[in-house]
Automatic annotation (TrEMBL):
Transmembrane segments: 126-150
Keyword DNA-binding appears in the UniProt entry: no
Species: Streptomyces mooreae
Keywords, sorted A to Z: Membrane, Transmembrane, Transmembrane helix
SUPFAM superfamilies: lambda repressor-like DNA-binding domains
A Pfam family per the record: HTH_31
Name of the molecule in the record: Helix-turn-helix domain-containing protein
Length: 299
């Protein structure tokens, strides 16, 4: 049984419940922090921060620990979502009451006589001047609004074209490529074509991430996985949904260790550092034993 340090007093109730739940799951696995790092895409230091309430873990880390511990993912993610909402809820600031006007005796000025002001405003010259200023102000405002409407599409187009990804490296890990914009500069680093589907290893230079993409000829994939090295893996269980399917992203700077795999109709194909199809076959000199690696993917 691990001897946990007390959680920070600054944690709200939802974040404290999440940290306690993650600690219980870690104990259930019987793994040390090193062992947990080897079983998931997250480092020992990252798990130290997550389990001690120093940082809210990403959703993919919670899913990974739940998978290793055999937890009820739906219940676990409900705890995570509550903690995430509490952490990211906007802070409402009470409206500031307008300052009360200073009493006349504090201003150092004497109010203009009401009768003089009425006589001044009745002057035809002043009224004409005020009317002209109002008309000119309305015209300028109308022209500015029209110019803004014309300029808006062009500005939006420039923004969309020049937009940089919303994350990089480990900040992207566990996310899908479209939302942060990692698909914009994605390229296929490796491709394998099977009789029933095509599997691609995709890489985004701007995000520094890889993911797996599968395009079945018909039907859908059962699972799509991305590997970096022997132990870093993220999987999307697509449950046979038709059409293109992708895995979450993994961060890497070494494409030689990346492997994209997909399972469709109980057949498996992998491409990248190794290329495997069932039955397993691999190139000589690969870091991964072909048959054993394929057995891990099939699980």
């Amino acid at each position: 049984m691990s001897r946990w340090r007390p959680l920070p007093d600054t944690l709200d109730a939802d974040a404290q419940r999440l940290a306690e739940e993650l600690r219980a799951l870690k104990e259930r696995t019987g793994l040390s922090l090193d062992g947990l790092a080897r079983k998931t895409p997250y480092s020992k230091s990252a798990w130290h921060r997550y389990l001690n309430g120093e940082k809210l873990p990403p959703r993919s880390a919670v899913e990974a620990l739940g998978q290793v511990a055999g937890a009820d993912q739906e219940q676990l993610l409900a705890v995570y979502d509550a903690a995430y909402r509490a952490r990211t809820a906007p802070v409402t600031t009470p409206p500031v009451a307008p300052a009360a006007p200073l009493p006349e005796e504090r201003t150092g000025r004497t109010a203009e006589p009401a009768g003089w002001a009425r006589k001044f405003l009745r002057s035809a010259g002043v009224l004409r001047t005020v009317g002209a200023l109002v008309a000119l102000t309305a015209l300028v405002a109308t022209m500015g609004a029209a110019a803004a409407i014309v300029e808006m599409p062009a500005r939006a187009a420039r923004t969309d074209g020049d937009a940089s990804p919303a994350c990089h490296g480990h900040r992207c890990q566990g996310r899908y490529p479209w939302r942060p914009g990692c698909n914009r500069d994605a390229r296929a680093e490796s491709t394998i074509v099977d009789a029933t589907y095509t599997v691609r290893l995709r890489f985004s230079p701007s995000c520094g991430t890889v993911w797996s993409e599968v395009q079945p000829r018909s039907g859908g994939a059962q699972k799509v996985s991305i590997w970096v090295g022997r132990d870093a893996r993220l999987t999307s269980h697509t449950h046979g949904r038709e059409g293109l399917a992708v895995s979450p992203m993994l961060a890497t700077s070494d494409l030689r260790q990346a492997v994209a795999c997909a399972k469709v109709a109980d057949r498996v194909a992998c491409t990248g550092a190794i290329e495997l199809t069932s039955p397993a076959r691999s190139r000589d000199g690969d870091d991964f034993p072909g048959t054993k690696f394929l057995e891990r993917v099939m699980r």
